[in-house]
């Protein structure tokens, strides 16, 4: 007691305030928020009673606590199951243009379409093409084929399925990635399909599967068949991977599947604006969700690459991560590419560049790098 009396009361109370603050920080970092708040309120009570707490220290704690709450809310959105999200939050998660850091949502879409059109025009100007090759009777059931000028006995074929949320774009903007591939001796095929509202999900999946059958019948001399898709196109490519080919009297030997920023579980978008033209029911969404079909797959020898943009939304990233884990668990040879400094659109646009990481990876998959 004598030693305590010799210490000024200001020092004792200041030390007490520091202890309270340290306890608060410790528990907050451990995410025991309720206890952290209790300690914080006790600290404030001491400050009020004795008027000796350091005002700067209190300001620091308040500022830190505000930041903690903001981070906690963001983590809550990221970690929540989609079923627990409000419609507004879910629609933001599934609006890729709202996550780009390069420009506004409207501008990034306009720039994306312009980039695809420009790249396709260039490809058609410098490459031999066979345009609007039918693979079925439907108006949109056509292929654009880009052929290397130099023939070779080793001719891999890449089939590309475009994105656009199953309701935008077409094969006519899908030749942008051609030039670096054709220059290496790869045949590239861009597939058209009936987007919504004219087409529905069952029809689109059927069309891309039938496009594979038609291609193999017309180009039986190819050395290997590879698939690539972006966004909705990645979903369609994954559905091709999930096909029971016994229904088609053919057994395509897929050697590689390249999936870029795709959706592999359609259930989260059922209540969003994306589904308004698609009009999917839960039953339709389930039977057309690649993540729901992995257990039915026979382990394939083909390589699978799942790529996602650094600035894709948390839900888009989660879709890719979870599908990757499912394929790994099923025994597939699959790799995951988290591409830095890209968003949902630039990750695919940059395939025009031969030196781009994903272009090199795609060429390597086909033995052309």
From TrEMBL:
GO cellular component labels: cytosol; nucleus
Superkingdom is Eukaryota
| Pfam families tied to this protein | Abhydrolase_3
Q: Which reaction does it catalyse?
A: N-formyl-L-kynurenine + H2O = L-kynurenine + formate + H(+)
Q: Which InterPro entries match?
A: AB_hydrolase_3, AB_hydrolase_fold, GDXG_lipolytic_enzyme, KFase_ver/fungi-typ
Q: What class of enzyme is it?
A: hydrolase
Where in or outside the cell? Answer: Cytoplasm, Cytosol; Nucleus
This protein's record includes keyword Nucleotide-binding: no
GO BP, sorted A to Z = 'de novo' NAD+ biosynthetic process from L-tryptophan; L-tryptophan catabolic process to kynurenine
Q: What is its EC number?
A: 3.5.1.9
Instruction: Please explain the role this protein plays, according to its UniProt record.
Output: Catalyzes the hydrolysis of N-formyl-L-kynurenine to L-kynurenine, the second step in the kynurenine pathway of tryptophan degradation. Kynurenine may be further oxidized to nicotinic acid, NAD(H) and NADP(H). Required for elimination of toxic metabolites.
Similarity comment text for this entry: Belongs to the kynurenine formamidase family.
Please report the name of this protein according to its UniProt entry.
Kynurenine formamidase
Q: What organism does the record attribute this protein to?
A: Triplophysa tibetana
């Amino acid at each position: 007691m004598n030693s305590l009396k010799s210490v000024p009361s200001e020092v004792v109370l200041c030390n007490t305030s520091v202890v309270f603050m340290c306890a608060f920080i410790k528990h907050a970092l451990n995410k025991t928020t309720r206890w952290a708040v209790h300690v914080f309120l006790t600290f404030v009570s001491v400050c009020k009673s004795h008027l000796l707490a350091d005002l700067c220290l209190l300001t620091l704690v308040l500022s830190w606590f505000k930041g903690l709450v903001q981070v906690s809310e963001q983590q809550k959105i990221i970690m929540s199951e989609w079923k627990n999200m409000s419609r507004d939050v879910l629609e933001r998660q599934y609006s890729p243009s709202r996550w780009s850091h390069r420009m506004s949502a409207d501008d990034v879409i306009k720039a994306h379409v312009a980039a695809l059109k420009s790249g396709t025009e260039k490809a058609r100007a410098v490459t031999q093409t066979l345009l609007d090759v039918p693979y079925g009777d439907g108006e949109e059931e056509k292929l654009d084929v880009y052929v290397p000028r130099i023939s070779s006995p080793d001719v891999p074929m890449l089939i590309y399925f475009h994105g656009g949320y199953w309701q935008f774009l077409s094969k006519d903007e899908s030749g942008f990635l051609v030039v670096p591939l054709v220059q290496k001796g790869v045949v590239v095929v861009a597939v058209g399909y009936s987007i919504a509202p004219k087409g529905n999900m069952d029809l689109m999946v059927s069309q891309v599967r039938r496009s594979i059958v038609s291609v193999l019948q017309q180009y039986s001399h190819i050395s290997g068949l590879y698939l690539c898709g972006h966004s909705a196109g990645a979903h369609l490519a994954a559905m091709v991977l999930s096909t029971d080919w016994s229904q088609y009297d053919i057994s395509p030997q897929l050697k590689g599947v390249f999936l870029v920023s795709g959706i592999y579980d359609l259930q989260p978008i059922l209540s969003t604006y994306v589904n308004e033209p698609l009009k999917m029911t839960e039953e339709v969404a389930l039977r057309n969700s690649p993540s729901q079909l992995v257990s039915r797959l026979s382990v394939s020898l083909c390589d699978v690459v799942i790529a996602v943009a650094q600035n894709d939304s948390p839900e888009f990233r989660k879709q890719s991560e979870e599908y990757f884990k499912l394929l790994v668990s099923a025994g597939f040879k699959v790799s995951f590419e988290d591409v830095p400094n890209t968003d949902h659109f630039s990750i695919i646009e940059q395939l025009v560049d031969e030196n781009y990481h994903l272009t090199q990876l795609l060429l390597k998959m086909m033995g052309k790098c």
